[in-house]
Design a protein that fits this description.
By secondary structure, the chain is an alpha+beta fold. The chain is 34% helix and 34% strand. The protein contains four helices and seven strands; from the N terminus they run βααβββαβαββ. It has a seven-stranded mixed sheet, with helices on both faces. The longest helix is centred in the first third of the chain and has 18 residues. The radius of gyration is 16 Å and the shape is globular. It starts with a strand and ends in a 6-residue tail after the last strand. 26% of the residues are buried.
Amino acid sequence: MEVELKSLKEEYAEQLFAFELENRRFFEQLVSSRGEDYYSYNNFKEGLNVLIEEQQKGEALYFLITNKKAEIVGRINLFSIHRNPCLTGELGYRIGEPYIRKGIATKSVAALLEKVKKENKLTRINAKTTSHNIGSQRTLQKNGFFLHSVEKDAAQLNGQKYELYYYCWSNDSTII
């Protein structure tokens, strides 16, 4: 499946809110819930505006992942961008349940890496995932991320504890 990364904008609010609602149960199997307040449209829109402001300040890059029909199939974010001493950021992404196991996450991470290498000269990206999220681990590894540390019992999800796997990617081997 071909994917396109579209910069997060207010005009996508309703479509993105619908995507989040449709995939809520699925996402909450993989990551902690965002809480009940997140799923009120007014609160969602306020949060969206905060993200757009962060993006405008250069503190983050937020993208919607869309298919050929311009449907949202996921999200990918580069947040906590710092520019000193080197450009660094934290990666996060989520793919809607109907679209998993189609290579969308792998293609989207690759597309994001291309964007940041060309446009932002980012040199280091960190990511983390839980030990039970094998798909995310594979996505990161396929895109050149390496596992640099493991934190035991660091994540709790639905009453179970999981290890957190910390990954790193760099386009400058001298900073790792």
